[in-house]
Amino acid sequence: MGIFDRSAKGHITPVIEITIERGALIFFAETIGETNPVHLDTRAARAADHPDILAPATYAVVVGTLAGQKAKRRGQPDILELINGDLRVLLHGAEDYTYHGPLYAGDTVEVENEITDFSDPKGGKLEIAHITTRISHPERGLLVEANRALIHRLS
């Protein structure tokens, strides 16, 4: 018997707004060893025709995490609660990102998660929850779509 609450399929979380802070963005870029000045310096970013510092592609993970933390502070259930997931027995499966537009310092973006599906591969020895996270800008539209799989191995 699986642990996932499959009735959660199709659930979309309320939108959470996150403002991308310049200092946090620079700190992240430095932490990952980024050396391209468009990720570190406003003048360099603007000289390269960006409105502000450009977020490295992997910053989308941070935005998703910040949204989850903010939702929890508001008393909203997180994805794991919605699917009845237990981190003590879950594995992180595949994760992929589709980028439709850049994230910049100063952007206020909207983040939502959708429980898109459940599957039972390996002859039912595994159950997988499929989750999509979308990061959108109110004027520039969808910027990042992330798909991930959380795996539970059945005994």
Model description:
The chain is an alpha+beta fold and 155 residues long. Helix content is 26%, strand content 33%. It has helices at residues 22-31, 42-47, 59-73, 79-83, 121-124, and strands at residues 16-19, 90-99, 108-119, 126-137, 141-153.
Properties at a glance:
five-stranded antiparallel β-sheet, 5 helices, 5 strands, elongated
N-to-C CA distance? 9 Å
**Gross morphology:** elongated
Would you tell me the overall average pLDDT?
Answer: 94
Number of strands: 5
Biggest sheet record: 5 strands, antiparallel
Please specify the SSE layout and strand pairing:
Elements: E1 16-19, H1 22-31, H2 42-47, H3 59-73, H4 79-83, E2 90-99, E3 108-119, H5 121-124, E4 126-137, E5 141-153
Summarize the structure.
By secondary structure, this protein is an alpha+beta fold.
